[in-house]
Amino acid sequence: MTFPYSEKVLEHFRNPRNVGKIEDPDGKSLEGSPACGDMVAVYIKVDPETQRISDVKFESYGCASNIATGSIITELAKGRTLDEAKKINWKQASEALGGLPPIKAHCSVLAVEGLRSAIQNYEERHGLVKERKPTTEELVKKRLRKVMNPLSGLDLVRTNLVRAVSVEDGIVRIGIDLPESHQFAANIRNEIREKIEPLWDVRRVEIRFED
Amino acid sequence: MSGKTIYLDNAAAARMDESVLEAMRPYFFETYAVATSEFGYSSGIEAREALDKARQGIASRMIARSDEIVFTSGGAESSNMALKGVALALGGKKGKHLIVSAIEDFPVLHSARALERQGFEITFLGVDSDGLVDLDRLREAITGETILVSIQHANQEIGTVQDIAGIGAICREKEVLFHTDGTHTFARLPLRMDETPADLVTLSAHTIHGPKGVGALYVRQKTPLAKWMDGGFQEFDLRGGMENIPGAVGFARAVELTTDEETGRLQAMRDVLIDRMLREIPDATLNGHRWKRLPQNANITYHFVEGESITLHLDMRGIAVSTGSACFSRSLEASHVIMAIGGDHERAHGSIRFTFGRFNTMEDVDLVVRQMADVVERLRKISPLKHAGEERKVEK
């Protein structure tokens, strides 16, 4: 049989390591690719003493290279310090997998970004962010680009679902162009909170669903 | 895994029937001469007779005249010839407007886009959630400038069969030419040119276990069609280039071998597969019309999982299928057909097409359903979206 992937990719695809969800994670992320529709979630546990990643898990709604990259980055990240893990890049992941087809690069970059975002999420939640820039509407919108509408597999900004964003006195107000009764309204609300609340100067997030 | 492959991608390419090869063989090794007139040398005359006989066989299957069948290199060429040939013949006279459905296969779709770049106006007619063209919308789209309507007989991905009799009647009434792509329907669905008001029909051999690289275009008598492939005077001076006689003979033999009884068998496999997949695997949706569909086609979206991952897992288990996921395509674009019926990226992402052929059995269906259930379950376990699915189920 002939497959379009290296043996190593196939092995990780068949038996992905560190798959699943960590209940009560210290940091987590959900990244989606508007280009191909793939998504990846990364969860980390961090040892507060050593600042090392004590556990890491991932979930993938994606193709073989997305799954294999998710698997390999969890192996590369486990036991590393946050600063070390942050530096893991796509090239290292790809080399560890014995190479990936170029057209598949963006599906696997997603998993690498997922790890970085989970670390960032941890740092924000634990007040470890070094440069403290004030939260702006642009930053909120940038983060909303990472909130997916599960129905379309595309993010809220790209699908024009974000109606209004304002930042005032530490209160972020977001209007979403979906009815309150939308089947994924609760998911979307939780995801928005998870993305925006960790910002250091945000006191409250108010989300309005409107038709 | 056993060494046997269960091949369920017959719409892409089907295994050639051995008896097709037997029919073709003499035209490679004995009667290999170019087809000549009755005043030529004997092996050329024999070649000519074989070509005429093949043409007659294909014509009679669709109740057409033998001089209405033009052999080509396959379905893609036939559709190019139909669209570009009509555009070339009528573009400077009657008008520059063509209508095609949004879910046509690439030969029609990309021929239309190529004509658009050359100054033609194209209407890409949308379809409903089953993939059906609305006849009233078609009627409204036709203008005094319209020279051709091209709407497929059945869809290559989701299998939906269009009402070509109804479409053809509107075209007749409006005096507009009608082309239909019959790549997946010829010899599988009834088609009589004495009843169906179509002027041009694309035919192909590879979908019915014939050879690759041969097809035909049905051209109704007196249809204005400019010669697009220049060469000699072959094929009623409509298509230059040396005739592919073994191909034509193989095509005709493939048509002979494709019976209604066999098609009924494929349809039975299709129905069992659809019923069991939807019953045994949660969160699975059929794409395309439930019964106005190709007898050999099933297309199902397995929500919360991605199609390329499914096809690779199945491939490792010896099963070949295809998907409309963007990850699977060379262009990284999701299936334009699935997007046109729902506009939904997620539905394309987990869509799998199964197409049956002569060499499939009911045992294959059973195995594929069981393997698919296992693969989907495995992939859902690692999908972050399954939680959304669980919540949705609780709501019901």
How does the SSE layout of this entry go?
The complex is a heterodimer of chains A (211) and B (396).
Chain A: H1 7-14, E1 27-32, E2 39-47, E3 52-61, H2 64-77, H3 82-86, H4 90-96, H5 105-125, H6 137-144, E4 148-149, E5 154-155, E6 162-168, E7 171-176, H7 185-196, E8 204-209
Parallel strand pairs in A: 7-8
Antiparallel strand pairs in A: 1-2, 2-3, 4-5, 6-7
Chain B: E1 6-7, H1 18-24, H2 26-29, H3 42-61, E2 69-72, H4 75-90, E3 97-101, H5 106-117, E4 121-125, H6 135-141, E5 146-150, H7 164-174, E6 177-181, E7 200-204, E8 215-219, H8 234-237, H9 245-257, H10 260-280, E9 284-286, E10 297-302, H11 307-316, E11 319-320, E12 322-323, H12 336-342, H13 345-349, E13 351-355, H14 362-381, H15 386-395
Parallel strand pairs in B: 1-11, 3-4, 3-5, 5-6, 6-7
Antiparallel strand pairs in B: 2-8, 7-8, 9-10, 10-13, 12-13
Helix pairs in contact in B: 1-9, 3-9, 4-5, 10-14, 11-14
Count every helix of chain A, treating DSSP H or I runs of 4 or more residues as helices. 7
Envelope shape of chain A: globular
How would a crystallographer describe the biggest sheet of chain A? 3 strands, antiparallel
Spatial shape of chain B: globular
Summarize the biggest pleated sheet of chain B.
7 strands, mixed
Largest interface: pair, residues per side: A-B, 39 and 31 residues
Measured by DSSP, the beta-strand proportion of chain B falls in 5-15%
Number of domains of chain A: 2
- How many domain units of chain B? 2
Notes on the protein architecture:
The complex is a heterodimer of chains A (211) and B (396). Chain A has 211 residues and is an alpha+beta fold. Helices cover 36% and strands 23% of the residues of chain A. In chain A, the strands form 3 sheets. Chain A has a 3-stranded antiparallel β-sheet with strand order 1-2-3. Chain A has a 3-stranded mixed β-sheet with strand order 6-7-8, with helices on one face. In chain A, a hairpin with a 4-residue loop joins strand 2 and strand 3. The radius of gyration of chain A is 18 Å and the shape is globular. Helix content of chain B is 42%, strand content 14%. Chain B has 15 helices and 13 strands. Chain B has helices at residues 18-24, 26-29, 42-61, 75-90, 106-117, 135-141, 164-174, 234-237, 245-257, 260-280, 307-316, 336-342, 345-349, 362-381, 386-395, and strands spanning 6-7, 69-72, 97-101, 121-125, 146-150, 177-181, 200-204, 215-219, 284-286, 297-302, 319-320, 322-323, 351-355. Residues 388-396 of chain B have low confidence and may be disordered. The interface between A and B is medium-sized, with 39 and 31 residues.
